[in-house]
Design goal:
Elements: H1 9-14, H2 16-29, H3 36-48, E1 53-57, H4 60-70, E2 78-82, H5 88-95, E3 99-103, E4 125-128, H6 140-149, E5 153-157, E6 165-167, E7 173-175, E8 182-186, E9 200-204, H7 207-216, E10 221-223, E11 226-227, H8 238-248, H9 251-269, E12 284-285, E13 291-294, H10 298-307, H11 337-345, E14 346-349, H12 357-372
Parallel strand pairs: 2-3, 2-4, 4-5, 5-8
Antiparallel strand pairs: 1-9, 6-7, 6-12, 8-9, 10-11, 13-14
């Protein structure tokens, strides 16, 4: 049995008529740049995330980058970032001229460890970027408390957590991307809410930030030929917004299917020695963008899975503080032991909404055989 890491064919088949209609409408209207579909998607996604304003941009990386610029982050500033995440989180900081300052992660959730943030704060610290990794929200209440105490801005990197939720101490559930100054989203095709190409979004309740973002994404202009700030060409394409409007209607259902598949995985993996399973924290509604297990002999496991036709991946094998691009920051091996240990053990199994129970049972049976050897 061949099982790909990701299969989007059923999603496309399920909504094919709506995709075709959206494409035909966009072509008919000739509004390919900042067209009607962009404005409609911005409104609908803001409503979905319980925010006042949304600004579509060309990628999740730019959502972070332009978000930081709108908060006046720049040269001389420092921004706290978890060391275990995709490199775009840190690159967005670097693009502003600011310095990323790395922090270790929680061993069970793989998100930034709130207890280690204060030690990283200096008089240059301007902001914190918690990442909702693998589809599980970071522990936001203590992070928000720290940000308030030190007068820091905060941006949620929500690239992997569309529709995830965080339970506040008062029992209220808040949607990921809605709890800080700015929520930054990616719509890369593999995401829970993915376009047919690149795309991103910034969410905010602050009208001033909203207006800055509108200019930053579109050449810094106030009118067609009136440019009042240094801006960029970072617009969400109309056709991608049209696709995302279709997919947004299915997001909650597809997330529920991911959660169902995670439960099947967890049930079938019970009793297999040598595995560490994903943990859904008590404060979290996990949407399982990635279903990550940990094993000591990861390379062998990946090879054996591949022999049986099962495609597994690694997210992420090298923590950011050990990436060559950041060697000038002066970090060294051993600085963040939790992230370094997890990076050697983490293994992502196939996960997508239409993954079948029979496929999951095959994957887990193969895993059992591998671990029993």
């Amino acid at each position: 049995m061949k099982i790909p890491f990701l299969d989007l064919s059923q999603q496309i088949k399920e909504a094919k008529k709506d995709f075709n209609a959206a494409f035909n409408k966009t072509v008919k209207n000739y509004d390919f740049i900042l067209g009607e579909e962009v404005a409609l998607f911005e409104k609908e996604f803001a409503q979905y995330c319980h925010k006042k304003f949304a600004v579509g941009v060309n990628s999740g990386t730019d959502a972070l980058f332009l978000g930081l610029l709108s908060l006046r982050v720049g040269p001389g500033d420092e921004v706290i970032v978890p060391t275990f995440t995709y490199i775009a989180t840190a690159l967005a900081v670097s693009y502003t001229g600011a310095k990323p300052v790395f922090v270790d992660i929680n061993e069970r959730t793989y998100n930034i460890d709130p207890g280690k943030i204060k030690a990283a704060i200096t008089n240059r610290t301007k902001a914190i970027i918690p990442v909702h990794l693998y589809g599980q929200p970071a522990d936001m209440q203590p992070i928000l408390k720290i940000a308030k105490a030190y007068n820091l801005k905060a941006i949620e990197d929500t690239a992997q957590a569309h529709g995830a939720k965080y339970k506040m101490p008062n029992g209220k559930w808040e949607i990921a991307g809605s709890m800080t100054d700015i929520g930054a989203f990616s719509f890369y095709p593999t995401k829970n809410l993915g376009a047919f190409g690149d795309g991103g979004m910034c969410l905010t309740d602050d009208e001033g930030i909203y207006k800055k973002l509108l200019m930053l994404r579109d050449y810094g202009r106030r009118s067609r030929y009136e440019h009042i700030t240094l801006g960029y060409n970072s617009r969400l394409d109309t056709i991608q917004a049209a696709v995302l409007r279709v997919k947004l209607k299915h997001l909650d259902k597809w997330n529920a299917l991911r959660r169902r598949n995670a439960k099947i995985y967890l049930r079938e993996l019970q009793g297999i020695k040598g595995l560490i399973f994903p943990l859904e924290a008590g404060y979290a509604y996990h949407v399982y963008h990635v279903f990550a297990i940990r094993v000591k002999n990861r390379d062998r496991v990946i090879e054996e899975l591949a022999k049986k036709g099962i495609r597994a991946l690694i997210h992420y094998p090298i923590p950011l503080h050990l990436q060559e691009v950041y060697k000038d920051l002066g970090y060294k091996k051993g600085d963040f032991p939790v992230a370094e240990r997890i990076a050697k053990e983490i293994l992502s199994l196939p996960m997508y909404p239409h993954l079948k129970e029979t496929q999951i049972k095959f994957i887990t049976s193969v895993l059992k055989d591998i671990m029993d050897k």
